[in-house]
């Protein structure tokens, strides 16, 4: 079992992780350490590689520990699925170049509250997904650094934070998120034209100031958990998104015909995608992958239908096969 020590740089405020194979968890007395987390299927070598790549910080390794790590110098690193050398080689330069052709149409929703679990899923499922969607849960748990970690794995990052606030606040927030390198960001269309226009300006300006490509702001029309929204709402919010200059709309599959009529040039992002026979979870409106694509979806969002499947890789492969 590998334990992960997370420390915080007192000057920059950024976090870095150091992983050690420790078998007897005890309250940490190490200076600066603010969290001790456990992962049964992650090895120390992998997290050390992640810390070095993502943060530019060279972590102390077990064979050359700093004084405050000396008590753990004899700790043994465990790697359940590979030997230490195999796992280190695999993760030190982990990128994905052999994604399937349909991967660009698929977004992996990482609905977890732990960076280690998110990265494990992202690595295992990378051949099948070109976009990684970070919701409020994962963003609250990990902060902005999750964006860089997923980009290092070759994903386009979709921040599904559904901004809804005053126009000035939304513009400033979107600017910060654009500078992180996210390609997509959601706002609630309920916020109206002025708020979404501010979000478009902020998101675009933040990306430009950081030297990033032009990002896409996506307006959430009706949540797929809302099965009782009045019929006119979808059309009204899609039209508002067009007026505000958004680049996409977030809608259920059964709203795609209307979305194509009102906003034909906008990217159509569809959540609630489920294979036949899989649980719908909290989605009131779901659709099969082929059904959604045939109706005009550009980007399909799959989360728990894959990540909570008995075999997530097999579930992802089945989705890609249906779309091929």
Structure description:
The longest helix has 17 residues, at 193-209. The chain is an alpha/beta fold and 324 residues long. It has two domains: 2-91, no CATH class; 95-323, Aldolase class I (TIM Barrel). An eight-stranded parallel barrel has the order 4-5-6-7-8-9-10-11, surrounded by six helices. The two termini are 39 Å apart. It has twelve helices and eleven strands.
Strand neighbour order, sheet with most strands:
4-5-6-7-8-9-10-11
CATH architecture of the largest domain: Alpha-Beta Barrel
Helix share, percent = 25-40%
Shape: globular
Report the portion of residues in β strands.
15-25%
Global Rg: 21 Å
Order of helix and strand elements from N to C terminus:
EEEHHEHEHHEHEHEHEHEHEHH
Which class do the helix and strand fractions yield? Answer: alpha/beta
User: What about the largest sheet?
Assistant: 8 strands, parallel, barrel
């Amino acid at each position: 079992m590998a334990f992960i020590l997370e420390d915080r740089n007192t000057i920059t405020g950024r976090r870095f992780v150091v992983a050690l194979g420790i078998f007897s968890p005890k309250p940490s007395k190490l200076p600066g350490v603010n969290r001790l987390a456990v992962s049964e299927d992650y090895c120390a070598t992998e997290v050390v590689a992640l810390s070095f790549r993502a943060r530019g910080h060279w972590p102390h390794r077990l064979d050359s520990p700093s004084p405050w790590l000396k008590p753990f110098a004899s700790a043994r690193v465990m790697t359940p699925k590979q030997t230490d050398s195999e796992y280190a080689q695999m993760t030190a330069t982990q990128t994905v170049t052999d994604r399937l052709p349909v991967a660009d149409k698929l977004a992996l929703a990482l609905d977890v509250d732990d960076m280690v679990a998110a990265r494990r899923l992202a690595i295992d499922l990378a051949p099948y997904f070109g976009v990684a969607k970070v919701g409020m849960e994962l963003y609250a748990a990990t902060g902005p650094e999750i964006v860089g970690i997923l980009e290092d794995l070759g994903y386009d990052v979709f921040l599904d934070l559904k901004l809804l606030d005053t126009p000035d606040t939304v513009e400033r927030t979107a600017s910060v998120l654009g500078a992180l390198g996210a390609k997509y960001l959601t706002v609630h269309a309920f916020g109206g034209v002025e708020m979404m226009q501010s979000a478009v300006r902020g998101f675009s300006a933040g990306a430009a100031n950081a030297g990033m490509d032009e990002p896409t702001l996506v307006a959430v029309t009706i949540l797929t958990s809302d099965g009782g929204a009045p019929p006119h709402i979808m059309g009204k919010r899609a039209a508002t998104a067009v007026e505000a200059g958004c680049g996409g709309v977030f809608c259920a599959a059964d709203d795609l015909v209307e979305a194509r009529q009102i906003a034909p040039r906008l990217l159509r992002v569809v959540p609630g995608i489920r294979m036949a026979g899989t649980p719908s979870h909290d989605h009131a409106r779901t659709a099969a992958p082929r059904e959604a694509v045939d109706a005009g979806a550009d980007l399909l969002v799959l989360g728990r239908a894959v990540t909570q499947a008995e075999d997530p890789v097999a579930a992802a492969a089945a989705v890609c096969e249906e779309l091929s």
